[in-house]
Design brief:
about 120 residues; four-stranded antiparallel sheet; globular; about 0% helix; five-stranded antiparallel sheet; about 55% strand; Jelly Rolls
Length: about 120
């Protein structure tokens, strides 16, 4: 159950199988407590790894591995950052994909921040 002190930041990577990143603006101070992903199709060849950063600094325990084997639309994965996860208003949150997988598949991202 979430508290009233939690807020959510959303993003979408249009092609998780192409190396790159998205940037999401941070609207308020807090600590990232969870990052979740939802896959929109099956991956091919290899796992996709999503790495999170705040203004270029890696978030400790902030990586998600989306397993290729048996992947399908609707698969959800998550991580619970443990350090380097404090954000302030105006920061940019970066979610980077390693592009190791195959198939043009989008992935939706939800970042939970606790004030």
């Amino acid at each position: 159950m979430r508290t009233l002190n939690d807020y959510f930041i959303y993003g979408k990577i249009e092609d998780v199988s192409t190396a790159g990143q998205i940037y999401i603006p941070v609207p308020d101070d807090g600590k990232i407590i969870k990052i979740m992903s939802a896959l929109n199709g099956a991956l091919g060849t290899a796992d996709a790894v999503l790495t999170s950063k705040i203004d270029g600094t890696a978030v400790t325990d902030g990586a998600i591995t989306i397993t290729q084997s048996g992947s399908a639309a609707g698969d959800q994965d998550s991580c619970s950052p443990s350090a380097a996860n404090h954000v302030v208003e105006g920061d940019k949150l970066e979610i980077e994909t390693n592009g190791a997988s195959a198939n043009t598949i989008s992935v939706d991202i939800c970042v939970i921040v606790r004030r």
